Amino acid sequence: MTGALDKIGLLKPVTYKWIQDGNDGQGFIAHELQEVFPDAVVGEKDAVDKNGNPDYQTVDTSFLVATLVASIQELKAIVDAQQQEINALKNK
Asked: Is the distance from CB of 12 to CB of 32 less than 8 angstroms?
């Protein structure tokens, strides 16, 4: 997997309050997440059922795990390369 860090950079995490109980939450707006990770979201934005009731999208963030791990690995490679450069400069 390549380009994971760039893909993660496209995500827009949000904080929110649950309507039911007012508790704080954090996550993603489903239709925004769907643009970056289509497999992580089921349903369509603003969909309604046959009675006109909202048919909400659902999010499964488990689809993000592999890309998140790959992005951490990309960051580690960057940090390791920078550390080598720092060490080389210190030893001059």
From this structure: yes
Query: Is there a contact between 4 and 71 (Cβ–Cβ < 8 Å)?
Result: yes
* SS3 of residue 7 by DSSP: helix
- Cβ atoms of 31 and 58 within 8 Å: the answer is no
- Note the residue count of the chain: 92
Type of residue found at 19: I
Q: By C-alpha distance, which of 39, 22, 21 is closest to 30?
A: 39
CB atoms within 10 A of CB 6: 10
The C-alpha angle 71, 44, 16, rounded to 5 degrees, equals 60
Q: Kindly report the pTM of this predicted structure.
A: 0.84
- Using one digit for the tens of pLDDT, what is the confidence trace for 16-38? 999 999 999 999 999 999 999 99
Beta bridge partners of 59: 41
